[in-house]
Amino acid sequence: MSLNLQSFTTALGLCLATLTALPVAAETELSLANFIPARHPMNAKVFTPLADQLAETSGGDLTIRIYPSGELGAGPKRQFNRVVTGVADISFGLQGYTSSQFPRTLVAELPGLFDSPEDAVATMWRNYELIGEDYAKTKVLAVWVNSPAVLLTRDRAVNSVEDLAGLTIRAPSAIGAKVLEAWGANAVTMPAPEIYNALQTGVIDGVFIGADAVKSFRLDEVTKHAAFDLPNTVTTFFLLMNQGSWDGLSTEQQAQLDNISGLTLSKQATEVYAASGAASRSHLEGLEGYSVTNLSAEESDRMVDMLDDLYLAVAADLDDQGIDGQAVLNGLLEN
């Protein structure tokens, strides 16, 4: 069968029109919601480098846009809900703000389990199968910890555990609150951005928090005393991705994100917090008129010994939820 020139031209035009109408692979921009200011070390030294690295690796086909200071919604306690419901593709938050969602992970916040933050994050990832069910609704990009906790107080210096008696202290999570109560304090939980005003107005007498938060949230302005060298206590953090957003990426894009997240990203975040905590400690030690107490090893050990019943209670509480509490506790003790 022959094809005349007019028919050929018409057919070619149809083919070109069809090719033009075919969808072109669009660049994918992921939103990252967090509640901390842009100057915070996590934004400046973890999330921004992550976004830069992903853009470079993907040739600009997969990028992350960071929304700091609650731009995608106010309220730090709703960070987990934002990522589950898809308000954000990625969300940064603390497990302690929605403690009931993360019963396994929060065991890591018991004092005395780890020798250092680095030990903590390595142990959590090595035993991920023990805590992974906490994140069943999401894709985990990172789970990490901050620098060891410090006790910051307004009016009363804490030189021993007895000095906590009667003080109202902010805790980062339900586990942290139980620890403070075992040490004789009255405990309340609240997000970090609310601490400054609560201290300034006298709603709380002090705060139990990673030392890195001192400069990030200007806590040196509303406290006069700090107690360091407590039993090694850390707070846990997450960077999670909406499952649908993850499933919507191509296999290549998933691999690009996987290659720069997970344990690698978790270690990086832990290191940034550790450096920030060390800087905050030096800042307080050099601050005129500010008192810094370094608790003795004996006092720290005594404070751990006071938590024996709490360890058992935490394991039993997990058992009541159908979780092998002793297995989780034993796994996190193996560092």
Could you characterize the architecture of this molecule?
The protein is α/β, with parallel strands linked by helices. It folds into two domains: 26-144 and 236-275, 3-Layer(aba) Sandwich (D-Maltodextrin-Binding Protein, domain 2); 149-233 and 276-333, Bacterial extracellular solute-binding protein, family 7 (D-Maltodextrin-Binding Protein, domain 2), CATH 3.40.190.170. The chain is 42% helix and 17% strand. It is built from 14 helices and eleven strands. The protein has helices at 5-21, 41-57, 79-85, 117-126, 128-131, 174-182, 195-200, 213-216, 243-247, 251-258, 263-285, 297-305, 308-320, 325-333; strands at 28-33, 62-67, 90-94, 138-145, 149-153, 168-171, 186-189, 206-210, 225-228, 236-242, 291-294. The strands form two sheets. A six-stranded mixed beta sheet has the order 7-6-8-5-9-11, with helices on both faces. A five-stranded mixed beta sheet has the order 2-1-3-10-4, sandwiched between helices. Helix 2 (41-57) links the parallel strand 1 and strand 2. Helix 4 (117-126) packs antiparallel against helix 11 (263-285). 43% of the residues are buried. Residues 7-25 have low confidence and may be disordered.
